[in-house]
Amino acid sequence: MLGVDEPSMVQAKALVKRFGDFEAVRGIDVEVRRGEAFGFLGPNGAGKSSTMRMIASVSPRSDGDLKVLGMDPNIEGPRIRARLGVVPQQDNLDNELTVRQNLHVYGRYFGLSRAHVRRKAVELMEFAQLSDRAEDEVEPLSGGMKRRLTIARALVNDPELLLLDEPTTGLDPQARHLLWDRLFRLKAQGVTLIITTHYMDEAEQLCDRLVVMDGGRIAAEGSPAELILRYSTREVVELRFAPGEEVPADRVADLADRVEVLPDRLLLYTAAGESALEQVRQRGVRSLSSLVRRSTLEDVFLRLTGRTLVD
Length: 311
Fold this sequence. Notes:
The chain is an alpha/beta fold. Helix content is 35%, strand content 26%. It has eleven helices and 13 strands. The strands form three sheets. The protein has a six-stranded mixed sheet, with helices on both faces. A hairpin with a 2-residue loop joins strand 11 and strand 12. The longest helix has 16 residues. It starts with 9 loop residues before the first strand and ends in a 6-residue tail after the last helix.
């Protein structure tokens, strides 16, 4: 709970973004508290990126109220941007420069002294585990190294608020987990994080609270645990079938609170997964594989939007 003298880092009320006749963001209310990791989830076209650009103070709102760090982006955009760190979806590093030079050049954009930037670069390279690549050009670095450098660069001005747009897209599992560790460390240091992601496990790991957006509106809001409790069941039975095989949903529909039919599998939402699976087998339903697991944010997403995140 925020204190009386501690304003929200971001506060939006009835926030709207239009592009001509198209309304990308349709009157959303959002509050991001100091020190938390806040997530925006949703399919492509849900309005996440448009919202992030308004928060980053690079795209003016069309209607509604928005305060970032207690200021109005339409009036005090430069002051806000000086206190933000932004990690775009696509790395935009200077590939011909070295790791160290990328940090030096970016730091100078903020008017920081050369001596300060030199010290900060050493600190950030250690944070990003890139100290041994300091004098290497960026081009041959791995995707994970480039992503860590992009995050390090966004921290050169010691931002109070860090915006991360799909921070781990395209990375292998090992690189993703290393990046998660860096983000956990930032949060522990008091940096407020706002994250968009297509990965449900990432949102569950990183986000204290999140909103699910669909069609420019907020479909649900809460902590990962609250959303799972509210919109799903304790367990899910997954039955996978061969491509083209008929999925026998009608034969098992009464065994679960809800049944989700996907192209290659059947999901049975129930409080008692093992019991439901045993009853499925007693009815002679045969699948390629079966699994009983706990509910996840992906199940919440399917319930709310009826789509997968990569549509």
